[in-house]
Specification:
With 393 residues, the protein is α+β, with helices and mostly antiparallel strands. 34% of the residues lie in helices and 25% in strands. The protein folds into two domains: 167 residues, FAD/NAD(P)-binding domain; 164 residues, D-Amino Acid Oxidase, Chain A, domain 2. Helix 1 runs parallel beside helix 5, helix 1 packs parallel to helix 9 and helix 9 runs antiparallel to helix 10. Its cofactor is FAD.
């Protein structure tokens, strides 16, 4: 079956990438069902950043207004010294960013983003289905779940994250790469963060530690991610918790904004940071990977969700190309997306060390390089994934 006829598509994973994939493919007339291992979908996680490259896709999907209404449009980017709090680099965002890159830069609570997608999905993902195996023939693919059920589809899309069961079918077993770093995450009411009502995308950089801070939910809450080196903390879970006193102690001696913010969080999450080596392949004849299942990346470029959304645009367009066989569509998707995501994966690894330099010549040199930041990130934020698609001859 070529992709000129409606396809039966099984998406494994009901996160941002999985739901966005289903919405995009349903809009093109395909029959799509999303399966997830969770027994219920809960409001876990904290903030995520959406750049112009992701928002262009969401706008075309008709989701842009709902996302904007749930988010905060970040008006500036600032880098602060860890101890004094002094700003050593800032640049406007807001309208400037929108005009430069073709869309806004937003901070949004993951739960709010998930709800926008659930509303657009028009139905409920099928929960309690943990994929354990995938089999395929020339004409179909079959997913087996831990509860004993199986599903047959024309295409299976693995959007099931870093520890993807679908990926093992595509690539064989591989190991996640531990960064020897973990992060504390939390949300604080804006009135409990000094200067919170003026915050945009805010970095605090210091020796062996850094924080990324920005508003979500229309500026009601300040989201923080506080990164620390820790080879002992290896638990990777969005639901794992930490004592807020641990985070305060980890940033002892930092400026008042940081310590006050960390002291006022009601619930602190903590998880270890992993990625994987870039994959040699993402697809077989009837099965492909998307988002973190295909290219898990450390969060130091703020591109995890954006790259999943870019994947959605390219994959949905190719699967809907008249006369293009499924296997060829999946192959083209992989060939288009792999070089870009690989480059961002590797850049995300390198950013952590750059953000955690001690005071001195190396930090001064980094701070000087920030003057070119808008130009240096233009290839990421200004990208339109539709430009990667060429007509099929």
């Amino acid at each position: 079956m070529g992709s000129s006829a409606p396809l039966r598509i099984a998406v494994v994973g009901a996160g941002i990438g999985g739901l966005a994939t289903a919405i995009a493919l349903r809009a093109k007339g395909h029959e799509v069902v999303v399966y997830d291992q969770a027994s219920e979908l809960t409001a876990i996680g904290a903030g995520i950043a959406l750049g112009a490259n992701g928002m262009k896709v969401l706008d075309r999907m008709g989701l842009g207004r709902a996302v904007r209404d749930a988010a905060s449009n970040l008006q500036r980017i600032q880098f602060h010294h860890w101890k004094t709090g002094d700003i050593f680099y800032e640049h406007p965002m807001g309208d400037w960013y929108d005009e430069r890159f073709g869309g806004p830069f937003l901070g949004i609570h993951r739960a709010d983003m998930h709800q926008v997608l659930l509303d657009a999905y028009d139905g409920s993902p099928i929960l309690g289905h943990r994929a354990t195996a995938v089999r395929e023939s020339e004409d179909a693919a079959e997913v087996e779940f831990a509860n004993g059920t199986t599903v047959t589809a024309d295409v299976v899309i693995g959007a099931d994250g870093l520890r993807s069961a679908v990926r093992e079918h595509v690539t064989g077993p591989d190991e996640a790469v531990f960064s020897a770093m973990s992060c504390y995450r939390g949300l604080v009411p804006v009135e409990k963060v000094p200067g919170g009502d003026e915050m945009g995308l805010t970095f605090f950089l210091g020796p062996n530690r850094h924080l990324v801070v920005y508003p979500v939910r229309g500026g009601e809450l300040i989201n923080f991610v506080a990164y620390v080196p820790d080879p002992e903390w290896t638990l990777e879970s969005w639901s794992s918790k930490a004592d807020s006193a641990e985070a305060v102690a980890a940033f002892a001696g930092w400026n008042d904004t940081v310590t006050t913010m960390l002291s006022n969080v009601q619930e602190t999450g903590r998880w270890a940071l992993y990625d994987r080596e870039p994959l040699r392949r993402w697809s077989t004849g009837r099965v492909t990977l998307l988002g973190d299942a295909a290219h898990p990346m450390l969060p130091h470029a703020g591109q995890g969700s954006n790259q999943a959304i870019e994947d959605v645009a390219v994959l949905a367009a190719l699967l809907d190309t008249p006369g293009l066989p499924v296997a060829e569509a999946l192959h083209r998707y992989e060939q288009i997306r792999k070089p870009r995501t690989r480059q961002i994966q590797m850049g995300s690894r390198g950013n952590a060390a750059c953000f955690q330099l001690p005071d001195g010549p190396a930090a001064d040199e980094r701070n000087g390089r920030l003057l070119a930041l808008p130009d240096n990130v233009a290839w990421i934020h200004g990208h339109d994934p539709e430009s990667d698609l060429t007509p099929v001859a």
